[in-house]
Amino acid sequence: MTDCKYHDSAKGDSSRTRSKVTEKKKKTDYGMIKKKNRLVEDIKSTSDNDETCFPVKPLKKQFRTYPCNYCEHTAQKKKLLKIHLTEAHPEVVNRSRKSFVATETVLRARIEHDGKIYYHCSECGKNLNSPYTFYWHLRIHTGERLFTCHLCGKRFRVNQGLTRHLKDTHAGIKNVPCDLCGRMFSTRRNVEDHRRIHTGERPYVCNVCGKTFKQKASLFVHNRTHSDVFPFKCSYCGQTFRTRPPLMVHITKHTGEKPHACDVCGRCFRIKYELKRHRLIHSDEKPWRCTDCSLSFRQKRYLVNHKKLNHEPPRSLAAPQVTG
């Protein structure tokens, strides 16, 4: 009897539970139907009124683009960007931060001092704060330039240099003026470099010989004159150079190429400086001025000859000594 009573009680509890669940489900269904009916009414009322519209948020993903970090190409999809990198920049596809941070060169350069980690350059003695900056710094000494401009072929050590070059040289947007002469530039940094022409400021100093420079890049190039690293080799004769510009000039001796043409008379020159000096023939500009008599000359060599002939005292001839 006890078991029967327990069974009847359990049966009653189960029935009441099912009743509550059913009632709750009915309420939920009724609520969903009510919401659906309200939505239908809203749509009907909107379709009857042409001036009413739903506020729609813009789909940002639909218009997202993926710019290439190595040129001006922009892809509509990430997959297309990867294809572009493979075809246009194969030299950087397989390169990632993990691959070069773990190189033996970087690990050998790692030192610890006062609880801080540095990366020591054995070429110039400089200590860098991170493996990335150390790796990029090494290219100053090796001359390695992995980033190439797809428009003019100019090469750069770091991607930031290529990006800045594309903007400064090829974008054509120059909206930052020099406050001294009004000349326009694409970036404030370029204006600061340019202003030193007016001010004569040379803030970058070589810590070996003390020579000063207007631009940081000029100091980098100069530093190679104090090293024994000659990374640029002529493919014709094997002669090596510390920097790329003299190599390119040297190669023209083998090829006979004269890429620098005068826009006035058409005469061509191997070296850009020769063209610059030649163009003074077509103008009245005489930038080389004598400080003794104020005469001006088109070329420096003319000024040097003038000073020797007119302002330097002649060498006195020593009288022969007479011995008794």
From TrEMBL:
GO CC terms: chromatin; nucleus
Localization in the cell: Nucleus
Alphabetical GO biological process terms: epigenetic regulation of gene expression; regulation of transcription by RNA polymerase II
Keywords, sorted A to Z: DNA-binding, Metal-binding, Nucleus, Repeat, Transcription, Transcription regulation, Zinc, Zinc-finger
Stored PROSITE patterns: ZINC_FINGER_C2H2_1, ZINC_FINGER_C2H2_2
GO MF annotation terms: chromatin binding; DNA-binding transcription factor activity; RNA polymerase II cis-regulatory region sequence-specific DNA binding; zinc ion binding
Region (Disordered) residue spans: 1-29
Domain (C2H2-type) ranges: 119-146, 147-175, 176-203, 204-231, 232-259, 260-287, 288-316
Keyword match Nucleotidyltransferase: no
Domain of life: Eukaryota
Protein name: ZN836 protein
Gene assigned in the entry: Znf836
